[in-house]
Design brief:
This is Glucose 1-dehydrogenase. It holds the Pfam family adh_short_C2. Its EC number is 1.1.1.47. Belongs to the short-chain dehydrogenases/reductases (SDR) family. The structure is a single chain. The chain has a single domain, classed as Rossmann fold. With 249 residues, the protein is α/β, with parallel strands linked by helices. The longest helix has 22 residues. The protein has 8 helices and 7 strands; from the N terminus they run βαβαβαβαβαβαααβ. The relative contact order is 0.15.
């Protein structure tokens, strides 16, 4: 069986750990040349080493527009175009209503919403007709989650970006989809609570999943590669949940 993405050029933002790193590895395994971004050079270098010769790292913060300009300038010079954009960079932490600060809101929406918007918009001159744009959503966008309202609202915004951008880009044949994971065993998920409470969090979340376990980053990466490929050529504007059934029952 041939590689799904042979000869394709891909960008994964937030590609140094968790879902981003696993997705970048899968895209590379399927034949793509992969550019990844991350904010910390040491983690970026380690991720590039792990992915292999198909990867190029570019230090960038997806919420800083000048960083995005530099990313696309380097891709334009090195590859000339993009076929696949996985706008994955994002994150959040927990604050209950009554304790939410401007800093908390601005930081989460700055990366998860503003950063995603300009990551995609600034990529448009490089994206080839028929390309694939994939955003990272979350089951929290359709569920209430205690102390997680700002993050959840940011992911609901991401979901609507996909609906609207699929229409905006229909003339170029660019597909726009969102992959929405449930609880996945990543550093970001574990970092929501102190180390001593991490296993308790994982166990509590696994108990809410019909399959009885957390997802693994590699499982999300395989879905990202599928959405990026011609195998998903008639999938557009959709939200694909990869959640073990958590938000489906």
């Amino acid at each position: 069986m041939g590689k799904l993405l042979k000869g394709k050029i891909a960008l994964v933002t937030g590609g140094t750990s968790g879902i981003g790193l696993a997705s970048a590895k899968e895209l590379a395994e399927q034949g793509a040349m992969v550019f990844i971004t991350g904010r910390r050079q040491s983690e970026l270098d380690a991720a590039v080493s792990e992915i292999g010769s198909a990867a190029t790292g570019i230090r960038a913060d997806a919420s800083v527009l000048s960083d995005l300009d530099a990313v696309y300038a380097q891709i334009s010079k090195s590859a000339g175009h993009l076929d696949i954009l996985f706008a994955n960079a994002g994150g959040g932490d927990m604050q209950p209503l009554g304790a939410i600060t401007e800093e908390h809101f601005d930081r989460i929406f700055g990366t998860n919403v503003r950063g995603v918007l300009f990551t995609v918009q600034k990529a448009l001159p490089l994206l080839r007709e028929g390309g694939s744009v994939i955003l990272t959503g979350s089951t929290t966008s359709i569920q209430g989650t205690e102390s997680f309202s700002v993050y959840s609202a940011s992911k609901a915004a991401v979901r609507n970006f996909v609906r609207s951008w699929a229409l905006d880009l229909k003339g170029r044949g660019i597909r726009v989809n969102v992959v929405s994971p449930g609880p996945v065993r990543t550093p970001g998920l574990g970092g929501l609570v102190p180390d001593e409470h991490r296993q308790g969090l994982f166990d509590a979340l696994a108990a809410q999943v019909p399959l009885g376990r957390l997802g693994e980053p590699e499982e999300i990466g395989k879905v990202v590669a599928f959405l990026a490929s011609d195998s998903a050529s008639f999938i557009n504007g959709t939200e694909l949940f990869v959640d073990g059934g958590m938000a489906q029952v």
